[in-house]
Every structure is written in structure tokens, then in C-alpha cells.
């Protein structure tokens, strides 16, 4: 299994991406292709004590796409960037998956333009898995597509279900449509029309649609696949991140308020660090892009070596699980006929 | 010939019947395309006709299938 790592992108690249590659090699036996400025990567490899050539190779790319580059044109403008070269390598079969901690929009656009969408898939999407319940809850889409049609949401539901079954190990993933109430009539036009499509797919036994769910239900373990448009999904994701930080900050303040509290905190230290881990992007790994022909994983921008290794492990699992083949096999059920009903 | 080839590409990318595509077909209004679709289409056209990269200004000026045909004719002769 060969992972193509965009070694120059991310807040802590290239030092941490290189160390992450070495971890992925040592712990998981993955081959890693480091893409970026060769002299710098060689230096980082030496500094990290890694042996160049033993499962770790370098492909030179002179430019870097940063957070200031326009996502829609970055990959076309910076053809020699580590991200563009990594995606080209994936397209040409030089590796099995790409991992990048770089500019999210540029990576998504680049994946769509270079690796291409699976035929019949309208839009690629981003789908992080929230640490909820036994299997997790995939929030799909969480920001790739601000404007969606009901058909996109139908496709997200299918893709999320395949991912949850194959990678999260959930035998029968429950699909909930994120709305402002659980009744069928709730939501804007998009949710109402998507509800009809999802119900139809559910009745045909192709997905397990449980109906509308509210934002407050997402963490109550009621669905493994939470379907939404990218705008709402992104607002929800950022709200969750902000709330988690707010809670941890306040919890810390309470714990330090008095000697008695400090004593209590000391007793709880191990469990609290477990809670912190639950909310740590480094432990979760990366966010898969679903709908493109080959696996592309977005690691968190602030990823350290552990997070890069974790995203690489996730990429390898994505390849092995055959999610993309499952999407291709079922594409006929994921598209609409001209009259707005799902194809049979 | 150019129109026929472009119809094939547009039909495949936007998943629409070839018969419904005319020179007047507007990418944004008739095919519900967004900016990513248009760049994707431009890349497919570059590949199919072996053209140099279509610039951002040119991409912005192409709104219909007819515009695209005229652009390709202008470059490819």
C-alpha cells in the first residue's frame, strides 16, 4: 500500500509530515511517497533519523499552495505545487491514496479536476466522522458544497452509508436528514424534497432512512450518517468545535478554582485526558473526500506527526474497504430520472 | 465536427441527453453549472482538442456551447 503525502502543506509541515510518514512506515508498514521540495525533505528525513529509500521515497515539487491561494484556481495556477503533483501521481497510478493537510478548498477542487469524480456523482463532498456512539456519526457534507440539490443529498446518503458499513463497521447505518424539526414537513425546500428522495430509497431497502433529525440529536447516537448541505454542515461542525473548546476552557477554570477542585481534577486526570483525546483532531485522523475516483484524505491543518500517521492509516483503510467500488456499483440508484424520481 | 465532439463532452460531464444540447445551451442557466463545472469542462476541452491551457478570462467569457465552439475554432483553426 503506497500513500502519497503532500509533505509541504499544513501548519507544521514539512517537519511533522515527514515524521508522520516515518511513523506510518514504522507502525503500519505503509510505503510513503513524500511530495515536496526535495532538499528540504531530505534534510527533514535525516533530522528525524529516517532512512531514505526504505519504503519512503521523494518526488520533487517546487511550489506550495498555502491558505491564501484561491481554492478554485490554486491547483491550475501552481502546477508544480506539492498538492498538484501529489494529485497527479494519484491519477497516474503512482500510489493508492493522497493525504494532505493543506488548503481544504484547493484540495477538493484539485481532487475533482485531477482525479475526477466517479461517473454519475454530481459533487464530491467532505465527510468527517464525529465521535458518537459505537460507530461514530458521519456528517456529510461538511463544507464542500454550499449550494446543494436534493439529488446531491441523496448521493451523500448513499456514499455515507457505504462508508459507514465498510469503514466504521456498522452493518446497517441509520441515515438522518439534518433539519429544524423531526416532522416530515420541517425544513426548507431542499430538505423537503430531499426527504422524499431519501424515503423512497429507504422504502426500496437501499438505505436505512430514519427521517429528519435536529442538530441536538446528532450527539445522541441516533444516526451513523447525518446528511446535510455543505453550508449547514460546515456551520454545524464549526459550532461543535467552538462549543468543545468553550467547555474544555470552562472546565479547566472550574478545576483550578480551589484546592478542593484541584484535588478532584487530579483524581480525574486520566479520564479528562481521554475526553480531550476524543475531541482532538490528531486522534480522529482525517476527513475523507467522497465521490472522487480515488481516495483523498484531508488531514487537519494543524496535524502533527501522529495525526499524519493516523490520516495515512485511514487512507489505507479507505483503499482496502472498497468504498469507491461500492459507489460505482450502485450509481444507477443514486441518480434521478428526468421526472425527479430516483432511477431503478 | 467540433460541435459534435463538444456535445459528447458536455453530455458526459453534465449527464444530459446529447439531443438536448444545442449551440444555445447555456452552462449556468440550462445545465445548472457552477464555476467548478466550467473549469472541469475547460480542462476536458483542452485534453480533447490538445489545446494550450484556457485562461481564466477566456473561461469567464464562455457561457454557451456556441461560445465554446467559437473559442475552439479560434484556437485550433
List keywords for this structure.
heterodimer; A: 344 residues; alpha/beta; 7-stranded mixed β-sheet; 12 helices; 12 strands; 15% strand; B: 77 residues; mainly alpha; Non-ribosomal Peptide Synthetase Peptidyl Carrier Protein, Chain A; 60% helix
- CATH class wording of chain B: Mainly Alpha
What's the oligomerization state?
heterodimer
Shape of chain A, please? globular
Distance between the termini of chain A: 36 Å
Give unreliable regions of chain A as ranges: none
Strand content of chain B: under 5%
Helicity range of the residues of chain A?
Answer: 40-55%
Counting DSSP H or I runs of 4 or more residues, the number of helices of chain A is: 12
Beta strand % of chain A? 5-15%
Structural features, described:
Chain A is α/β, with parallel strands linked by helices and 344 residues long. Chain A contains twelve helices and twelve strands. Chain A has a seven-stranded mixed beta sheet with strand order 3-2-1-4-12-11-5, sandwiched between helices. Chain A has a five-stranded mixed beta sheet with strand order 6-7-10-8-9. The longest helix of chain A is centred in the last third of the chain and has 26 residues, at 230-255. Chain A starts with a strand and ends in a 15-residue tail after the last helix. Chain B has a single domain (2-76), classed as Non-ribosomal Peptide Synthetase Peptidyl Carrier Protein, Chain A (Orthogonal Bundle). The radius of gyration of chain B is 11 Å and the shape is globular. In chain B, helix 1 (2-14) crosses helix 4 (65-76). Chain B is mainly alpha-helical and 77 residues long. Chain B is built from four helices and no strands. The model of chain B has no long low-confidence stretch (mean pLDDT 90). Chain B starts with a helix and ends with a helix. Helix content of chain B is 60%, strand content 0%. At the A-B interface, helix 5 of A face helix 2 of B.
Amino acid at each position: 500500500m503506497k500513500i502519497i503525502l503532500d509533505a509541504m502543506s499544513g501548519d507544521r509541515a514539512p517537519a511533522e509530515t515527514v515524521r508522520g510518514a516515518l511513523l506510518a512506515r514504522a507502525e503500519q508498514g505503509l510505503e510513503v511517497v513524500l511530495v515536496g521540495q526535495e532538499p528540504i525533505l531530505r534534510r527533514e528525513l535525516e533530522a528525524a533519523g529516517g532512512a531514505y529509500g526504505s519504503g519512503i521515497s521523494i518526488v520533487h515539487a517546487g511550489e506550495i499552495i498555502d491558505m491564501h491561494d484561491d481554492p478554485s484556481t490554486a491547483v491550475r495556477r501552481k502546477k508544480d505545487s506539492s498538492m498538484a503533483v501529489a494529485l497527479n501521481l494519484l491519477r497516474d497510478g503512482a500510489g493508492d491514496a493522497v493525504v494532505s493537510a493543506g488548503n481544504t478548498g484547493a484540495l477538493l477542487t484539485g481532487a475533482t479536476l485531477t482525479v475526477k469524480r466517479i461517473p454519475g456523482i454530481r459533487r464530491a463532498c467532505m465527510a468527517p466522522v464525529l465521535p458518537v456512539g459505537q460507530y461514530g456519526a458521519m456528517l456529510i457534507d461538511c463544507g464542500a458544497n454550499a449550494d446543494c440539490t436534493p439529488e446531491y443529498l441523496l448521493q451523500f446518503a448513499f456514499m455515507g452509508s457505504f462508508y459507514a458499513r465498510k469503514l466504521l463497521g456498522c452493518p446497517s447505518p441509520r441515515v438522518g436528514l439534518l433539519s429544524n424539526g423531526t416532522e416530515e414537513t420541517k425544513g426548507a425546500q431542499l430538505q423537503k424534497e430531499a426527504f422524499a428522495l431519501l424515503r423512497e430509497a429507504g422504502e426500496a431497502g437501499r438505505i436505512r432512512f430514519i427521517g429528519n433529525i435536529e442538530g441536538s440529536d446528532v450527539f445522541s447516537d441516533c444516526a451513523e450518517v447525518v446528511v446535510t448541505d455543505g453550508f449547514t454542515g460546515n456551520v454545524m461542525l464549526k459550532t461543535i468545535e467552538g462549543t468543545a473548546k468553550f467547555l474544555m476552557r470552562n472546565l479547566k477554570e472550574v478545576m483550578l478554582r480551589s484546592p478542593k477542585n484541584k484535588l478532584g481534577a487530579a483524581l480525574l486526570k486520566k479520564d479528562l485526558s481521554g475526553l480531550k483525546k476524543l475531541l482532538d483532531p490528531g486522534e480522529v485522523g482525517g476527513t475523507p473526500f467522497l465521490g472522487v475516483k480515488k481516495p483523498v484524505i484531508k488531514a487537519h491543518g494543524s496535524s502533527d506527526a501522529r495525526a499524519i500517521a493516523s490520516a495515512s492509516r485511514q487512507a489505507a483503510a479507505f483503499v482496502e474497504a472498497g468504498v469507491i467500488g461500492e459507489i460505482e456499483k450502485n450509481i444507477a440508484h443514486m441518480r434521478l430520472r428526468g421526472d425527479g424520481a430516483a432511477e431503478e | 465536427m467540433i460541435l459534435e465532439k463538444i456535445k459528447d463532452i458536455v453530455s458526459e460531464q453534465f449527464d444530459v441527453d446529447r439531443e438536448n444540447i444545442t449551440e444555445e445551451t447555456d452552462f449556468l442557466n440550462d445545465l445548472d453549472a457552477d464555476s467548478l463545472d466550467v473549469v472541469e469542462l475547460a480542462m476536458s476541452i483542452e485534453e480533447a482538442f490538445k489545446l494550450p491551457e484556457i485562461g481564466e478570462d477566456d473561461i469567464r467569457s464562455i457561457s454557451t456551447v456556441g461560445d465554446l465552439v467559437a473559442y475552439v475554432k479560434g484556437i485550433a483553426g
